[in-house]
């Protein structure tokens, strides 16, 4: 009798365990579909599309801002002297710039160099500290070292050279030259300097 009761109890326990195990596989498939197709998948898709649109828009905007100013190339007149400092010589120079400020800086640089032996730059050793253009008035702040002193004739040519070079631009109505930030009566001590020079 005891063996039969014990067998029956054991059989009942096995059936309960079996029934319990049978429910777990059923529960697992029910849970997994919810985890496989949750809202996060849809949100991820929406986020991706949103970020791609947003980043696309911002990159297009920033790209257009960067590429807006285009470099311009212009041939200008620049003035030099002959090797004997006897006359003012007209030459040409190619300058490249994006804004007006850069145009005037490039024009000044053109006065500082020449690739022709018969055209000697009068402003080669005169350094440009700063340049400002406002309402038709162009102001140059320069440094004139001792080795840049050209004598009375050279100084006169240098002033004529810078006037002719910058007054070829119609928008430049006046030209003020400062030496180390200060107005001065003369560039090199030989020729009177107008403050400012006008057309």
Shape: elongated
Count, helices: 4
* Secondary-structure element series: HHEEHEEHEE
Number of strands: 6
Compute the gyration radius: what is it?
42 Å
Strand content: 15-25%
Residue runs with pLDDT of under 50 for 5 or more positions: 24-29, 42-61
Class inferred from helices and paired strands: alpha+beta
What spatial order of strands do you see in the largest sheet?
3-4-5-6
Q: Kindly report how far apart the N and C termini lie.
A: 132 Å
Fraction of helical residues: 40-55%
Biggest beta sheet attributes? 4 strands, mixed
Mean pLDDT: 81
Mind explaining what this structure looks like?
It is a single chain. Strand 1 and strand 2 form a beta hairpin. The longest helix is centred in the N-terminal third of the chain and has 35 residues, at 2-36. The chain has four helices and six strands; from the N terminus they run ααββαββαββ. With 199 residues, the chain is of the alpha+beta class. 46% of the residues lie in helices and 22% in strands. Helix 3 packs antiparallel against helix 4. Residues 24-29 and 42-61 have low confidence and may be disordered.
């Amino acid at each position: 009798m005891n063996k039969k009761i014990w067998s029956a109890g054991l059989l009942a326990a096995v059936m309960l365990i079996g029934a319990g195990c049978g429910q777990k596989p059923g529960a697992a498939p029910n849970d997994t579909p919810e985890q496989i197709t949750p809202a996060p998948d849809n949100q991820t898709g929406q986020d991706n599309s949103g970020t791609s649109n947003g980043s696309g828009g911002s990159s297009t905007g920033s790209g257009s801002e960067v590429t807006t100013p285009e470099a311009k190339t212009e041939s200008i007149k620049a003035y030099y002297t002959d090797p004997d400092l006897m006359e003012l010589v007209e030459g040409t120079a190619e300058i490249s710039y994006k804004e007006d400020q850069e145009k005037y800086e490039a024009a000044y640089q053109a006065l500082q160099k020449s690739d022709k032996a018969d055209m000697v730059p009068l402003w080669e050793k005169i350094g440009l500290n700063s340049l400002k253009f406002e309402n038709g008035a162009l102001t140059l702040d320069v440094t004139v070292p001792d080795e840049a002193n050209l004598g009375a004739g050279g100084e006169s040519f240098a002033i004529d050279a810078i006037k002719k070079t910058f007054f070829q631009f119609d928008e430049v109505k006046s030209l003020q030259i400062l030496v180390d930030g200060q107005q001065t009566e003369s560039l090199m001590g030989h020729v009177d300097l107008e403050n400012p020079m006008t057309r």
